[in-house]
Amino acid sequence: MAIELNHQEVLTPPVPAASVMVLRDSPRGLEVLMVRRHANSNVLGGAHVFPGGKLDALDCQTADSQLEQSAETLTASLGEATLDSGTGAGLYVAAMRETFEECGLLLHRELPQHMPGELRRHLKDGVGFVAAMTQLGLPLQTSSLRPWSRWITPRVPSVINRRFDVRFFVALVPAGQEVLHDDHEVTETVWLTPEAGLRQYWSGDIGLVPAQILSLSQLQQHATAADAMKAASTRLPPLVEPEPFEHEGQRMICYPGDPRHPVTRPFWVGPTRLIYRNNRFEPEGGLAALLG
């Protein structure tokens, strides 16, 4: 999948969204679930991404009685001083809802085997996600999620002519549940080690965009799913605001720690700049730089 550059400035505010890196351990090492967006989608069509989507108004109307943790606790975990508690809790709800809608996984411990099917039937009948969970007697187990990072698309996005404010989470795959993509927004699901995902991107077998490229590079630093979850638990999620610029006819995007970025301290070990060439985004140093 070749990525086409966007040159249009977007004047509207970024749309709040949530995305989840679902993790598991395998004989090959740590694996993360990726979904392939439908080729006709107007948002990253054909690309491999982590499950996720836009924050809905209903997500923000979830009562504390339906949450495993209070809205205030959830909001504090995101480390955003100006974020209201309804939106903070709503981002957790959106992350859980989108993960279920796109790949059939309900982030819930010790779930009776028939429950995912029951929930799908409720949603098909038009019942909202939170209302359906309440009807089934299932609290929203928000502690299954750990905030990982926050990415805000710049005013001139490099990939699409829309802006998003995405909170990325990590979660362990729930035991006993089967991945089931919706065949509407998502046409494929695949478990990949971070290294395999980056190698497949480099060989042209899958399409990735910068947030996924650099997130896989960061996950590459962790040997197990528990290691990644622990890392997320020991820090507040960093705010990543990419800074694109043109240099000698090439689009470059710099990130915290890069000499061209206003934030001088790097948030991760690895590349702090991507260059658009060969119809893809590459770091200085090539694939080896992403693999560490």
Structural overview:
The radius of gyration is 18 Å and the shape is globular. It has about 290 residues and is of the alpha+beta class. The two termini are about 25 Å apart. Helix 1 (about 70-80) packs across helix 2 and helix 5 crosses helix 6. Strands 1, 2, 3, 4, 5, 6, 7 and 8 form an eight-stranded mixed beta sheet that branches. The chain has a four-stranded antiparallel beta sheet with strand order 9-10-11-12. It contains eight helices and twelve strands. It has one domain (about 15-235): Nucleoside Triphosphate Pyrophosphohydrolase. About 40% of the residues are buried.
Summarize, please.
With 292 residues, the protein is of the alpha+beta class.
Please trace the helix and strand order, writing H or E for each element. Answer: EEEEHHHHEEEHHHEEEEEH
Q: Give the low-pLDDT segments.
A: none
**Biggest sheet statistics:** 8 strands, mixed
Rounded to an integer in angstroms, the radius of gyration calculated over CA atoms is: 18 Å
Oligomer: single chain
Class inferred from helices and paired strands: alpha+beta
CATH H-level superfamily title? Nucleoside Triphosphate Pyrophosphohydrolase
Dominant shape: globular
CATH architecture: Alpha-Beta Complex
CATH topology: Nucleoside Triphosphate Pyrophosphohydrolase
* Amino-to-carboxy terminus distance: 24 Å
Strand content: 15-25%
The averaged pLDDT comes out at 93
Can you give the helix content as a percent range?
Answer: 25-40%
Number of strands: 12
- Which CATH C-level class is it? Alpha Beta
Query: What's the tally of helices?
Result: 8
Integer count of domains = 1
